[in-house]
Each structure stands twice: as structure tokens, then as C-alpha cells.
């Protein structure tokens, strides 16, 4: 699947809950993408409050060339304005905070995360 991406390809994946009750899905996806640094040198987890799920939800960006945290607020503002993009949530001021994972998620990535395979997929047992 990853071979089909362009040279500067970016892979964005919805990755499950970002809370203390169910951190396993996010943690496993993060570990899996982080384990293939030759495909994606930049792996960044972020989160957002998703009201329909009534919890914080996680997403992961894996990129071949671009680190989403490399641009400062001024450059992000300039790029969005030049493209006529207006956001109410992912604003240049707030974007870095989205990538600041809570401590319990950093711990979960280390203690509950694992590389997913066809033989050992993630199975949600809520």
C-alpha cells in the first residue's frame, strides 16, 4: 500500500481514541508506522475532540519528506492566507498544540503499542 505513494507522499490515518481507557489502537498504529522509518521518516500523532464520539480522537500523519511541525506560526499563516484557507480549529496558533500528545498517550505508545501485522492485527475489545 505504501509503495503507491508519491515520493513526497503523506499518509494520514484515523487512529482511534486518545484517552486513558482505550489507548491501544492509537499506540499500535503509531508504533507500526514508526517502525518503517525507511518509508516514513516523519511520524506525528495528533488529536482532536470529536463530539460525535464524545472523546478525544487520534490521527497520525506519516510523511516521506515533510514534518508537519517544521513550519512556524508565521509561515503557516502566510501559506493558508495565500491559498484562501480558513480554519476554525486547525489554526496556525493551535496546530502545534494538536501534536502535543498527553503524557498517558506517550506512555501508552511505549507500553501498549506494538507493530501490527496480518498475523497479529489490532482487534478492538471495548
**Helix-residue proportion:** 25-40%
Q: Radius of gyration over alpha carbons?
A: 15 Å
Strand segment count: 3
Please mark out the parts with pLDDT under 50 across 5 or more consecutive residues, or reply none: none
Shape: globular
Strand arrangement within the widest β-sheet reads 1-3-2
Number of helices: 4
Q: How is the main sheet built? A: 3 strands, antiparallel
Beginning-to-end CA distance, first to last residue: 28 Å
- What oligomeric assembly is this protein in? single chain
Strand content bin? 15-25%
The topology string of helices and strands comes to EHEEHHH
Structural class: alpha+beta
- Average predicted confidence as pLDDT: 90
What does this protein structure show overall?
- By secondary structure, this protein is of the alpha+beta class.
- The protein is globular, with a radius of gyration of 15 Å.
- The mean pLDDT is 90.
For the structure shown, list the relevant keywords.
126 residues; alpha+beta; 4 helices; three-stranded antiparallel sheet; globular
Amino acid at each position: 500500500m505504501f509503495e503507491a505513494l508519491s515520493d513526497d507522499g503523506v499518509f494520514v490515518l484515523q487512529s482511534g481514541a486518545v484517552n486513558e481507557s482505550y489507548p491501544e489502537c492509537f499506540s499500535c498504529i503509531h508504533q507500526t508506522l514508526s517502525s518503517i522509518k525507511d518509508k516514513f521518516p516523519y511520524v506525528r500523532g495528533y488529536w482532536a475532540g470529536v463530539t460525535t464520539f464524545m472523546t478525544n480522537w487520534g490521527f497520525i500523519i506519516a510523511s516521506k519528506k515533510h514534518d508537519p511541525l517544521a513550519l512556524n506560526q508565521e509561515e503557516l499563516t502566510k501559506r493558508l492566507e495565500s491559498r484562501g484557507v480558513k480554519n476554525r480549529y486547525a489554526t496556525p496558533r493551535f496546530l502545534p498544540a494538536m501534536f502535543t500528545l498527553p503524557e498517558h498517550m506517550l506512555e501508552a505508545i511505549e507500553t501498549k503499542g506494538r507493530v501490527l501485522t496480518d498475523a497479529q492485527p489490532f482487534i478492538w475489545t471495548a
